[in-house]
């Protein structure tokens, strides 16, 4: 069976001078690991199905349903997609839209999702005075007003915080206390608590919960059941996991995915 291609080898957005071009990618046909790379154009990543996790600098981002991760032009990034992931990319020429100069998650309205999907079907070679060009202008104007969401896990460049992040990413069910982590890292608990807040802006409890949310959204979007996700994250019961999820995002997993017209399995 032939080796599948890297996602970045099949499309170069920087070849086009157009303000916005879209491209659809099905990871059934490509390698799930997208290596570190950079574009001149900014990139908005939308998950139509499955899930993708992106890394930019000292942060890990998850692309949940009806949201998109925005990565400005010139920012190095890598990604890992689930095997069932199908994505739409929108590449934006620098200065073409009033979009953030930092990576973030944007809420994406159904209308914008459909317009980006239409642009992906039209291809990257539309004429500057075409209907596709007018659609692209509407998309860029609307994106500038989309609300920002916080679906990221800060991992920091500090070697002690980064080692914690790497260990918890490998085993998110690890329930070690801050005191236990301080002992492992040869620090006092107070010093580690201050370091975490300085480096990530979060307390230890909120930081670990943010990782759990990132993992939960990725796994639920990829088709994993709530029961299995709760077990993977080390929760004693499904109800305890659902309580955490609802407290953080304002709805249960089932409600969250239903509002976004995305499938989800309870068991």
Textual characterization of the structure:
This protein is α+β, with helices and mostly antiparallel strands and 267 residues long. The protein has two domains: 7-149, Jelly Rolls; 156-259, Orthogonal Bundle (Arc Repressor Mutant, subunit A), CATH 1.10.10.60. Helix content is 38%, strand content 21%. The protein has nine helices and eleven strands. It has helices at residues 110-122, 131-143, 159-170, 178-184, 189-200, 204-221, 226-232, 238-249, 253-259, and strands at 20-26, 33-37, 42-49, 52-56, 59-62, 67-71, 77-81, 86-92, 104-107, 148-149, 152-154. The strands form two sheets. It has a six-stranded antiparallel β-sheet with strand order 1-8-3-6-9-10, with helices on one face. It has a five-stranded antiparallel β-sheet with strand order 2-7-4-5-11, with helices on one face. Strand 4 (52-56) and strand 5 form a beta hairpin. Helix 1 (110-122) runs antiparallel to helix 2, helix 4 crosses helix 5 and helix 7 packs across helix 8 (238-249). The longest helix has 18 residues, at 204-221. The chain is globular. The two termini are 34 Å apart.
